[in-house]
Amino acid sequence: MRAISRPVSRLDGALRAPGDKSCSHRALMFAGLAEGVSHIEGLLEGEDVVNTAKAMSACGAQVERLSLRRWRVTGVGAQGLRAPETTLDMGNSGTGARLLMGLIAGQQITAAFDGDSSLRSRPMSRVLEPLRQMGARCDSNDGLLPLTLEGAPLTGMEYVTPMASAQVKSCVMLAGLGASGDTIVHERRKTRDHTERMLKAFGVNVGQSEDGEGGQRITVRGGQRLKASDVLIPGDPSSAAFLWAAGLLVGDGEVSVLNVMSNPTRDGLVEAVRRMGAYVDVTWESESGGESLTRLTVKPSTLAAYNPEDDVVPNMIDEFPLFAVLAAFAEGDTVVTGAEELRVKESDRIAATVAMLVANGVYAEERPDGFLVRGCGRNGVPGGGVVTTHHDHRIAMSALVMGCAAKAPVTIDDAAMINTSYPDFFAHMTALGADMVREGDAESDW
């Protein structure tokens, strides 16, 4: 399903951010493993999260949708998961697949995992290897999906993550809950800490301490029991970014996004655009589940090139396609390094990001661990191209944001996968004043 985004002169309005995907996955998993009944408000109901809900149900948890974004989960308690009768289809979600493997590994059950073509291309060895070291067994397609994971009595260990990956860290931590003794994870660079924060909300004692320059040490004692907890899912900063980034690029208006989670491990893009000279106002609103909720307001801004420092990169790893679009509208050359993790996302995001820009008249080139973008300045991006999304929702939405402010419309070859993470994207962008149409919509020119 193709989609097109045409240039507009004004975006204006205030919208509530959709629920955070990372927190939604974790809330379903932790509630499913807890003792008692948990209520989840504001759950993101995209395809990725719904697949996690189905997987937890297949493993014995009672998962019920009460109404829009309101869910009730009756947990099975420690060691209470059962072997699913069918393959767990995780769709497009690396987070859902890798974290659930950690839960399954600590249970004495066997589960088969699979996903769509994009997820089948993503490396699972990065989580399978530490799980094997703890005692789990796996039969995989050379480290790829589909695979079968056999849980076992695990033994805690010390593990140094070879890359900055919250999914790897979280997988090992969750396996540690079902292991004997302590499991200790060392991160050379801190990654998003939603697992640590939410486990504490479910009654788990998680030890955290500084570990070297910019790193941390996380300790989880095996055998701890999760207690049911009511969770209000904060707004997803990664999804909210598409709304406010578009507001920075168009000619006029003011865009506000409410209920946006502010977390030091997720605020990299906000800090980046501030250093680019953007008008961004962040106002604290409340707290929920250990996370700060904010109102983020932007106005159209003239941007200058900015090269993210190494310690900022992990805190904006999901936003680099959108950051590249912002860099295309900036003055000067932007160089991104230290972002090799982008090579193994839903697509090779370095290659896909560069191709997205080049297709729309922007000079960009790949680097082994990042990319260079030669900014066209405000109102200077030509547009007019067709972007191959490679079944990557962030490439798709970033390209459509570019189309809002380019000189000519931007088309994407496939918009279907946007539903995996942000099912209200088109409705929200249209409410702000964007001119975006999907093939088959009533207003479509196709």
Q: Key features?
A:
alpha/beta, 2 domains, 4-stranded mixed sheet, UDP-n-acetylglucosamine1-carboxyvinyl-transferase, Chain, 30% helix, 446 residues
Please give a structural write-up.
The protein has 446 residues and is of the alpha/beta class. It folds into two domains: 3-19 and 234-438, Enolpyruvate transferase domain (UDP-n-acetylglucosamine1-carboxyvinyl-transferase, Chain); 21-232, Enolpyruvate transferase domain (UDP-n-acetylglucosamine1-carboxyvinyl-transferase, Chain, Alpha-beta prism). It has 13 helices and 25 strands. It has helices at 21-33, 47-58, 94-105, 117-120, 125-134, 166-177, 194-201, 237-249, 268-275, 320-328, 349-358, 393-405, 425-432, and strands at 3-6, 13-16, 37-41, 62-67, 70-74, 88-89, 110-114, 137-141, 144-150, 154-155, 158-160, 179-180, 182-187, 206-210, 216-221, 231-232, 255-262, 279-288, 291-299, 333-336, 364-367, 370-374, 386-387, 410-412, 435-438. A four-stranded mixed beta sheet has the order 23-24-1-25. β23 (386-387), α12 and β24 (410-412) form a beta-alpha-beta unit. The longest helix is centred in the N-terminal third of the chain and has 13 residues, at 21-33. The N and C termini lie close together (11 Å). The model has no long low-confidence stretch (mean pLDDT 95).
